[in-house]
Amino acid sequence: MKKIIYFLPLLLVFFYQKDKIKAVPTQQKPLVKVVDTIKKDTSKVEKLEMFHKGAHASYYANKFNGRRTASGARFNNNDMTCAHRKLPFGTKLKVTGVKTKKVVYVTVTDRGPFSKTKHIDLTRKAFMAIAPKSYGGHIEVDLEIVKK
């Protein structure tokens, strides 16, 4: 009789906890959510100010990878950044390809381009995201400043 008295509370605890024991997953899902930097969250309303229509854009050469930009950050051709002659560092821009209507969001981190015919230098990743397929060189874009 004494043995039953000792095991009865343990059986009750096990009986009430069995739902929680079965609910434990064998494989945990990753907690990190991967977000594509090209796509913009459409739930937020963004304020845009047209800066330049029909601007000529080009992209950085790979030889600049790892070098310091004018803002002091290290340049990486796989980031979504750009160079502009006059806009302050940290300015966020919405760049839209005129022919393709594709959009990319970039941040100004460098000065340039130093050619009078070009208005903005994009990283290679940003440029290829809005350029026509298998296209290189320069394209025509619309620049809009993203206001907070």
Automatic annotation (TrEMBL):
RlpA-like protein double-psi beta-barrel domain residues: 55-141
InterPro entries, A to Z: RlpA-like_DPBB, RlpA-like_sf, RplA
Ranges in a coiled coil: none
Family membership noted in the UniProt record: Belongs to the RlpA family.
The protein's name in its UniProt record: RlpA-like protein double-psi beta-barrel domain-containing protein
Source organism phylogeny: Bacteria, Pseudomonadati, Bacteroidota, Flavobacteriia, Flavobacteriales
